[in-house]
Amino acid sequence: AQSVTQPDIHITVSEGASLELRCNYSYGATPYLFWYVQSPGQGLQLLLKYFSGDTLVQGIKGFEAEFKRSQSSFNLRKPSVHWSDAAEYFCAVGPNSGGGADGLTFGKGTHLIIQP
Amino acid sequence: NAGVTQTPKFQVLKTGQSMTLQCAQDMNHEYMSWYRQDPGMGLRLIHYSVGAGITDQGEVPNGYNVSRSTTEDFPLRLLSAAPSQTSVYFCASSHGGLYNEQFFGPGTRLTVL
To answer: Which chain B residue lies closest to A94 (C-alpha atoms)?
Structure first.
């Protein structure tokens, strides 16, 4: 079965600094990869996704992520964070199949704190 | 569009009680899912549906039932609540597949005493 590891439970970044959130996955083939963001008291919102093609994907709110097959990673980046980026970030992986067999497997999340 | 709505927002139950968490979407999405979110555990899939009349189990289905009589509604039933079911429950919907963008509701925070 697939698995997702987000090594950092908490990350603190100064406003205006760059950000990288790590995500490693375990899967036998090329997975579907996702990053979701959860603001306090809210549901999750999709930031970006990778299915195939260009390994650098652009998302909403100025985020991007790069799929590196050799490292089984899908790290999320932003060049300059804003105080409004403070939230919980989840990486998720899905089977690369045509059906809806098992749904998404989510990582445990990384809590991003923005320092003024 | 209201998107995905969930009721209630908060609920406290005693062990052994039953209840239904409501979920509705007005986007005509075929796919709907229920997740639970526990501290330090991320989200785990409970049940999902690929269309009206069709449901299937996810990663943690025990203790929960679902049905999908209409495209819009996907209620989650707890038959006999247990403290281990204390969690935040999210409903989500998507168009075209579970691996397309999922739209999440605001969640229901359930406490079982």
So the answer is: B99
